[in-house]
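User: My collaborator sent over this chain with a note saying "see what the structure looks like." That's all I know about it. Can you take a look?
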Amino acid sequence: MGKKTKKAAEEEQARREEEDQAQADEARESGEQVEGQEDEATLRQQRDEYLALWQRAQADYKNLKRRSAIEVDGAVRRTMAPLLENLLLVLDYLDMALKSPAEVQETKDLAMGVSLTRDQLLRALDQEEVVAISTSGPFDPEQHQAVERIEDSGLEPGSIVRTKRSGYSWRGVVLRPAQVDVAAQVELTSPEQAGTESASEDQTEASASTAEDN
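Assistant: Without extra context I'll predict from the sequence alone. Here is the result:
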């Protein structure tokens, strides 16, 4: 009887140890699972932070690149614009020279040389994207400079009548406006004004006749 009781106690002890070991294993597995979930959440958070930093750095780089391009373009414009304006003056002088009459062979040869030089200069300006401003159509204050207003030109008011000096633009910026004459509205005399002017003329004539009689 005592042996059986001892054996039962040992079995009970072993069973309890197994249960304790199973509970310990289960707790360890649960802890590892929770720890794994925490590690995964931490990794996700770090990933999001690194992604946000990369996106911010990418945006900063694009902004820097854009600002640098604008600054470089501005520096090029400030450097090139005066040079191009001076070349346009040279083109004006060449045009003036070609307008001079060439009657003898020597002046004809000179005119041909001037014409070739002018053509070469125009090609060089075209390569630098310098283009002539159109003077056909209506007057544009952003591209044209009105020199004279022409009445009774046969054109609609505000239309360009003739070009006095050619204008040019460079990469969308006006280097110098085109100087033009613009058609003006013809001012019509009202009947009241016509009557007043007629009376004034009659009074002037009467005064002059009286002065002659005296």
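A starting point for your reply to your collaborator: The first strand starts at residue 130 and ends at 132.
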